[in-house]
Amino acid sequence: MSTLNHYKEPEKQSHSTTSELLEYQRHDGPLNILGFWIFLATDLLLFACLFATYLVIRTHVDGGPTDKDLFEIPGFTIETILLLASSFTGSLAVYEMRHNDKKRLLGWLVVTVLLGLGFIGIEVSEFLSYIREGATMQRSAFLSAFFTLVGTHGSHVSLGIIWMISIIRQVAKYGIEPINARKVFIIGLYWHFLDIVWIFIFTVVYMTGVVS
Amino acid sequence: MNGSTQKHALFPIKNVIGFGLSLLLTFVAIALGVSHALAFGPVMMIIMGLAVLQIIVQLFFFMHFTESDGPAYHIIGLAIGIINTIAIIAGTLWIMTFNSQVH
């Protein structure tokens, strides 16, 4: 019996206990969060298929431009830094939400959206410059796989931007309460997940092209 | 919520460390790739290792991976996702490059 009592009191100061967190307070909060983790696991499988395809046909250039010809270090490095920074500011948004600071929460969400837009802007201009050089999606198996993989990630980020803007509006209107807290936490998970996928695009697509 | 005002003095040190680590891992990867100090195989092995470390940084510094309301079912879900991801990629590469190995 004393062991049961002992078990009841975990450390309070860290957030390893969720009882004090707003996003876990409604009965559906934890379910939504668990469901979203499982969605991320399935989305990972979508990217796994695209990565596998890319790796198999990476060298099938049909006499057209290769990855080494195409990829330029400054461009994809800036994209990577923008996305890493947006992942950081997204985590700061959740941090401020948990300290009940609506202004800073909104501020960091806006910064995250702006960094995301910067990332998408550079990606679109990169794609357009490839297309101008004749490296279109139809040119070779390599380019089909490249545009599909990187484009699928880019469309995820674009969707995330629209989603985050709608959450900014919700928070501005209704403040920090359990439903909005859950929404902010989940968009945060989505955003960090896209950062992880990008790190692998950076490694498998761009760095492989530079090193080979 | 209550008690939040005195907490606010705290600096988001964990997030800042996470960001620093992710930048560091990225720059090490680029430096290794650009320097051509090693052959393609070893460089890619190391850079893939750095990418895996990036996942760990995101999960533990930003995504509150250890947090859960009750049993941590999300860890099982993600683990299945990762196992299947590895199976898909490794399996595809194995099958699709088999032809070039036997000829």
From TrEMBL, chain A:
Is the keyword Oxidoreductase assigned to this protein? yes
What task does this protein carry out?
Cytochrome bo(3) ubiquinol terminal oxidase is the component of the aerobic respiratory chain of E.coli that predominates when cells are grown at high aeration. Has proton pump activity across the membrane in addition to electron transfer, pumping 2 protons/electron. Catalyzes quinol oxidation with the concomitant reduction of oxygen to water.
A GO molecular function assigned to this protein is: cytochrome-c oxidase activity
* Protein's GO biological process: aerobic electron transport chain; ATP synthesis coupled electron transport
Topological relation to the membrane, as annotated: Multi-pass membrane protein
Q: What Gene3D superfamilies does the database record attribute to this sequence?
A: Cytochrome c oxidase, subunit III, four-helix bundle
Transmembrane regions: 34-57, 73-93, 105-122, 142-163, 184-207
Keyword Isomerase found: no
- Write down a Pfam family by its short name: COX3
User: Which subcellular locations apply to this protein?
Assistant: Cell membrane
Q: What is its EC number?
A: 1.10.3.-
**UniProt KW keywords:** Cell membrane, Electron transport, Membrane, Oxidoreductase, Transmembrane, Transmembrane helix, Transport
User: Subunit info?
Assistant: Heterooctamer of two A chains, two B chains, two C chains and two D chains.
- Tell me where it mainly resides: membrane
InterPro entries with a match to the protein in the record: Cyt_c/ubiquinol_Oxase_su3, Cyt_c_oxidase-like_su3, Cyt_c_oxidase_su3-like_sf, Cyt_c_oxidase_su3_a-hlx, Cyt_c_ubiqinol_oxidase_su3, QoxC, Ubiquinol_oxase_su3_dom
UniProt-recorded name of the protein:
Quinol oxidase subunit 3
Q: Which reaction does it catalyse?
A: 2 a quinol + O2 = 2 a quinone + 2 H2O
The UniProt entry's GO CC annotations, sorted and at most eight, read: plasma membrane
Domain Heme-copper oxidase subunit III family profile, residue spans: 34-210
Q: Which family does it belong to?
A: Belongs to the cytochrome c oxidase subunit 3 family.
Which species is this record about?
Pullulanibacillus camelliae
Automatic annotation (TrEMBL), chain B:
Claim: Cell membrane is one of the keywords in the record: yes
Q: Which GO terms describe its molecular function?
A: cytochrome bo3 ubiquinol oxidase activity; proton transmembrane transporter activity
Biological process, per Gene Ontology: aerobic electron transport chain; electron transport coupled proton transport
- Keywords assigned: Cell membrane, Membrane, Transmembrane, Transmembrane helix
Note whether Nucleus occurs among the keywords.
no
Q: Where in the cell is it found?
A: Cell membrane
Q: Which membrane topology term applies here?
A: Multi-pass membrane protein
Which interval of the chain is the signal sequence?
Answer: none
Q: Which domain of life is it from?
A: Bacteria
- TM segments? 16-37, 43-63, 75-96
- What is one GO cellular-component annotation here? plasma membrane
User: PANTHER family under this entry?
Assistant: CYTOCHROME BO(3) UBIQUINOL OXIDASE SUBUNIT 4
Tell me the protein family, please: Belongs to the cytochrome c oxidase bacterial subunit 4 family.
Q: What is this protein called?
A: Quinol oxidase subunit 4
Organism of origin is: Pullulanibacillus camelliae
